[in-house]
Structures are given as structure tokens and as C-alpha cells.
Write a structure and sequence with these properties.
seven-stranded mixed β-sheet, 12 helices, six-stranded parallel β-sheet, globular
């Protein structure tokens, strides 16, 4: 039985709803309800648009039904199921983007994104194109559980006794909001690579995740951090918020430039923080049609070329389908690779400690703050790279 904490249960709320590629609206939708004793209902106070949301918005990930968007959100607990005892009404919490039970084989192994219980209709070991996917994700298509996201006034949080973390009132929302996804994702890329100090780290993509990876590389003792992008405003953000060297890949060959900075060897670590939505020329787009592919592997291919022999490539940019892959080059260079979603629940407490110690600033990458009603404009602006948009925070 749910513990009711809202004095008035509203018949509907405002939410950002995906209807078809390139089209989201702010609609009236039904209020969420507690459906399981481990659920909680949150009143959302801040939510953000992620580059991964654009995979749905731009049609790279199929979604045939209307769906509430968003997996980066935080808010105040309004209601809890009877088995939720770690949080209660009035607590401010941040919510990791993977939906995980906390008790299955993978959750116990620190891999919440592979939870065996949170995506019952489409879960499986294969990781195929349209079936046997990983664990559930907020607002990330029916293939990943069909859960409503947090770009809304309220959101249902399953397994609320495992995922959400309480936040002190000493922090403003924007100081901790990115614990939900992009900070842990950037941290994951650097941690996978085992950065211990003295390395040269090249990050392809100076969007929000790439900026976080650059910040974390410095925290882990990197000797040199290089941000690569084709958008000058993002490169400026890398210089200003992460103190990185930058390379404009539209003006110079980034592989040649990185080798010139590293005595011809290449970077010790490469991070692909772009994924399949890399910029494509006409030849790329024709190749997509010929090979029945969506998007591009340009960032990954550049990482593999720009990293030294025996180096490490972390791939935290999202890829959704099979692609042609330079396996021979990877073998010859002896490159180590890691791919996947960030295990947020595994890292989040450690990362909160870094914020408590004032070792990192997260909110300096925010370029736009808008009310929830402006979400359609925000999506278009972010997708079309207008107005030097790096990161949008929406306020319900």
C-alpha cells in the first residue's frame, strides 16, 4: 500500500512527449501513480536534455508510441511505496538514469545497466538490434522498458529503495543534477581506461559528456587533455570549463595533430563521447544507405587511429546498430576497448564525495535554462546546434 503524501492528487500534469522524429510537445498527461511497493513518486524540480535524447528525437532509435522523454532529472519525494524506507516525503533526491533492481546477478556485480528485472519485455543476453536488450532506462523507448521519463512535473521511480540518492539542501539543483548521467558517464570513460597520472587523454566530442570526461581526466592526474570537436563554441567550452587543449577537426586532421603533440605515438587514452550521431558528409550518408546503417562511426575510427599502440579507447557515445569495424587495426595496434552505459549506481556515492570536497564543478557547462513549456524549442536548438547550445536545463 502506498503512503500518500500529496494532499491533492492531480488528474494530469505537464510533460514533454515524443510523438514522432523531430517532434516533441508539452502535453497534459496522466499523473503517475505508485504501481509497486518499491516505487516512489517525485515532483521534478530540474531536468535536462541529454545528447542521448536526440537519438530518439532524430529517429536513430525507433519509438512507435508516444513517450515522455528524459533521463536526467531530480526532485522532491512526494509519495512512496510500502517497501521504500531509505527515502521519504520531502527528501530531495537525484535519480540515476539506469533503472535497476539492486538484487539480480548484474546489479550485485556493479552493472546496473544490465539489470535482469527492469526490462521484462525486451531483456536478453544477445543485445540484438530490436530484441534482447539491456536493463530499463527512463524515457528511452519501449526497447528499454517503455518507462516514462523525467521531463515532466512528476515521475514514477521504480526500485526507489536502490537508485535515488538524497541531496543536502546545501546544494542547488544545478550543482548536483548531472550526477544522474553525464558526470558518471564521463567518469566511467576515464575509470575504464585506468588513468592513474601522467597520461595524454584525447576526448572526441566536446558536448556535455566529453566535457565531463575532460574534467575527470584532470582529476585523475592526466598530464595532457585534448578536446576534439568540429563546433568552435564547444571547443571554447572545453577550454573555458575544462582547461583543455583543443583541436578543430573541421580545420585540421585531428589524428595528425594528436600524433604531433605526442612524439608521433598518439594519445595514451582516447574517449569516444560522440557515438553514432557524428557529423556526416554526403559520402557517409550514401554509405549509410548502402550498408543499411544509421549515423556514423567517425569518432570511434578517429579514436582508434589517434591512440598509441597499446593504448585504451573508452566508448561512451551511444551506438545502436552493427557497423563496419576496423578490427584488423585494433588487433595490430594492441588497443584495449571498453563500451557501454555508465554504471551510475556503482559510482554515484564516490562522485558525490568529489562534489562535497569541491574537487569538481558541474554546472559551468549549462548554457540555457528554460521553463518546461519551452522544451520543443530547446530540443530544436540543441539538435540543430543553435545559439551555442551546450547544455539545456528545464524547469517544470
Amino acid at each position: 500500500m502506498a503512503r500518500r503524501s500529496r494532499e491533492l492528487v492531480r488528474p494530469n500534469m505537464k510533460a514533454v512527449v515524443f510523438h514522432r522524429p523531430g517532434h516533441v510537445e508539452v502535453n497534459d498527461v496522466a499523473d503517475p501513480k505508485v504501481e509497486h511497493p518499491r516505487d516512489a513518486i517525485l515532483r521534478v524540480t530540474s531536468t535536462a536534455i541529454c545528447g542521448s535524447d536526440l537519438h530518439i528525437y532524430n529517429g536513430f532509435f525507433p519509438q512507435l508510441k508516444d513517450m515522455i522523454m528524459g533521463h536526467e532529472f531530480m526532485g522532491v519525494v512526494e509519495e512512496t511505496g510500502s517497501e521504500v524506507t531509505n527515502i521519504r516525503k520531502g527528501d530531495r533526491v537525484v535519480v540515476p538514469f539506469p533503472i535497476a533492481c539492486g538484487c539480480c546477478f548484474f546489479c550485485k556485480d556493479g552493472l546496473p545497466g544490465h539489470c535482469e528485472n527492469s526490462n521484462p519485455n525486451h531483456y536478453g543476453p544477445e543485445g540484438a538490434l530490436l530484441s534482447q536488450k539491456g536493463g530499463g532506462l527512463f524515457g528511452y523507448t519501449n526497447l528499454y522498458g517503455g518507462y516514462s521519463g523525467g521531463q515532466a512535473e512528476y515521475v514514477r521511480v521504480p526500485y526507489a529503495d536502490f537508485g535515488p540518492r538524497k541531496i543536502s539542501d546545501a546544494y542547488q539543483d544545478e550543482e548536483v543534477l548531472f550526477l544522474t548521467d553525464i558526470f558518471p558517464t564521463g567518469y566511467t570513460a576515464i575509470d575504464w581506461a585506468g588513468v592513474k597520472g601522467g597520461e595524454t587523454v584525447a576526448v572526441f566530442g566536446c558536448g556535455p559528456v566529453g566535457l565531463m570526461a575532460q574534467k575527470v581526466a584532470w582529476l585523475r592526474g592526466a598530464n595532457r587533455v585534448i578536446g576534439v570537436d568540429i563546433q568552435e563554441y564547444r571547443l571554447a567550452a572545453a577550454r573555458e570549463t575544462a582547461s583543455s587543449e583543443t583541436i578543430n577537426a573541421q580545420k585540421v586532421d585531428p589524428i595528425k595533430a594528436i600524433r604531433e603533440l605526442t612524439d608521433g605515438r598518439g594519445a595514451d587514452v582516447g574517449v569516444d563521447a560522440v557515438g553514432m550521431e557524428a557529423d556526416r558528409n554526403i559520402a557517409d550518408k550514401l554509405g549509410n544507405i548502402w550498408r543499411a546503417e544509421i549515423g556514423s562511426t567517425t569518432a570511434l575510427e578517429n579514436c582508434i587511429s589517434a591512440v598509441r599502440r597499446g593504448g585504451f579507447v573508452s566508448v561512451v557515445g551511444v551506438y545502436g546498430i552493427p557497423y563496419k569495424f576496423p578490427l584488423g587495426q585494433v588487433f595490430d595496434k594492441g588497443i584495449k576497448l571498453a563500451f557501454g552505459q555508465a554504471p551510475v549506481q556503482r559510482y554515484i556515492d564516490e562522485l558525490m564525495g568529489l562534489i562535497d570536497q569541491r574537487k569538481i564543478t558541474l554546472n559551468d557547462i549549462i548554457t540555457h535554462r528554460l521553463p518546461l513549456e519551452k522544451a520543443p524549442d530547446a530540443y530544436e536548438m540543441f539538435s540543430e546546434k543553435k545559439d551555442s547550445c551546450v547544455k539545456v536545463v528545464l524547469k517544470p
